[in-house]
Design brief:
Blueprint: E1 2-7, E2 16-21, H1 25-28, H2 33-45, H3 48-55, H4 59-73, E3 78-79, E4 85-86, H5 88-115, E5 122-126, H6 132-139, E6 149-153, H7 159-164, E7 170-173, E8 182-191, E9 193-197, H8 198-204, E10 208-209, E11 218-221, H9 231-240, E12 247-249, E13 267-271, E14 276-278, E15 283-288, E16 293-301, H10 308-318
Parallel strand pairs: 5-6, 5-7, 10-15, 11-12, 11-13
Antiparallel strand pairs: 1-2, 3-4, 7-16, 8-16, 9-13, 9-15, 14-15
Family: Belongs to the LysR transcriptional regulatory family.
Domain HTH lysR-type: 31-87
Pfam family, one: LysR_substrate
Length: 328
Amino acid sequence: MSTRLDRSPTSGPGRETVDIGLDDRARRHPLDLRRLEQFVTVVEVGSLTDAATELGVTQQALSAAIRTLEKQLCVTLFVRTRGMQPSAAGIRLYEAAQALLAGASRTVRDVQAAARGHAAALSIGYTPAMKAIHAYDLVAELVPRDVPLELIRVESTAIREQMAAGDVDIAFCHDALPPEGLAGKLVGVLPINVALRTEDAARIGRDRVGLSDLAGLTMIRCRSDGESVDPGRVLARCRELGFDPDVENIRCLGLEAVSMPLATTQGFAFVSDEVGVYFRGRVTVVGLRDEIVLPVQAVWLRESVQGLAVDVITSLRSAVATPSSDLR
């Protein structure tokens, strides 16, 4: 016995017809992780030929694996009219498969740690706008002291990929909303300070400066992973406050944001570093009177968290984020 479900496709004419068999055998057979990994690659690449090349298998073998998965689940996973576009069932399996594969990778780490007689590390990711200490402060009190913490710097665009690979359990980013495909909770804000050459800071003569004090100086940025604060977002906030600085893209890539004033003359950089003196007195970081903050979002891959990560996420979700919940 089977039931036919008609579902409107997300785009294009016509309707997609999916045959779903109600045979309980589909529920009793566990999903093969290797086939799931192959399926995820096809979805992400969008081509059976290219996916086969990436996986190092023949196109015929990959096609057979996808057909076997469809037969096992009694669903159509791809609409094959234009390339390999996932069906509604395929999209749902893709979401679940990422969580299952991440959970499997995490299980390997947990089992290996148990064999060595100690707890597995909890891997915490943080984006370049933050410092490792910021991420540490957010979870330190939530993790037992005998559990190792691994702090991993990760680009915002790579968070989901790192989680799907099982390399990161929880991450902190400065997005107002969680990246697509991830669950999240706003847990605080990250105050932004200003880095200046020490002689420019001395000329201004204040421990905390207003944006108007920066008039005549150039906002410095570079296109690299060393840039700690999203300049577009901060610049938009400056303009909201009536400050529209000139912007200079420096030539030297890879510099930490706090060191950028040294790459030019009469420039400043927005940073998340603490107020203080850096590089043997060559750079001074001062606070801002016109407060600029970035949201701090805790994110995780839906349905993949397990073990201690569940407890940490539960605690983070119950926390109340307020403007005073900053990471100074």
